[in-house]
Task: inverse folding
């Protein structure tokens, strides 16, 4: 039943790790397990309380705030569209390394941004990311909502580096914590016209 050596005054039991036999399933809102160890001898009972921190709990993307359709300006102006993702980590928001998304152009069968992540920030827009004064667009610092204002270039821009492709895109949101664990991927479809 899990005990290794008989009569060594160390009492052990093997517990099945199955949801059929475990009554208190761990939720992912806490990194701690609280235990009561009881020893009964005759009419006396000794109870010792203890807690242990279980291993790293991966972060979760709770929601995405992004439009379904973005319309490019009809001139040489830039529209800054704020995209946000709400992320939760039971180990604390300070353990989140980054939050971001990739952009896949369906008609072009290609990844935008050279396949790299477009990062989102939980900085309360305190940091200027691009001169002269473009910030992330994040509203409240350290609240678990990560944001970025993506530039949508108007149709009159002719320089290749300043053109926004039109069509259907799949944005794949992800996050990584300091233990190098990744969240579930959340997809968002968007049409840019």
Result:
């Amino acid at each position: 039943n899990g005990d290794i050596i008989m009569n060594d005054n160390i009492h052990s039991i093997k517990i099945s790790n199955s949801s059929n036999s475990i009554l208190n399933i761990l939720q992912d809102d806490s990194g701690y397990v609280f235990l009561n160890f009881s020893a009964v001898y005759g009419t006396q009972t000794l109870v010792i309380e203890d807690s242990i921190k279980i291993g790293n709990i991966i972060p979760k993307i709770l929601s995405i705030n992004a439009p379904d359709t973005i319309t490019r300006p009809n001139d040489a102006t830039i529209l800054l569209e704020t995209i946000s993702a709400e992320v939760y980590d039971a180990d604390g928001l300070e353990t989140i390394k980054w939050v971001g998304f990739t952009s896949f152009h369906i008609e072009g069968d290609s990844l935008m941004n050279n396949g790299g992540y477009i990062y989102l920030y939980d900085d309360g827009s305190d940091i200027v990311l691009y001169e002269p004064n473009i910030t992330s667009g994040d509203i409240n610092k350290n609240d678990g909502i990560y944001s970025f204002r993506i530039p949508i270039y108007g149709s009159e821009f002719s320089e290749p580096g300043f053109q926004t492709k039109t069509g259907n895109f799949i944005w794949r949101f992800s996050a990584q914590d300091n233990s190098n664990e990744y969240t579930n991927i959340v997809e968002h479809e968007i049409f840019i016209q």
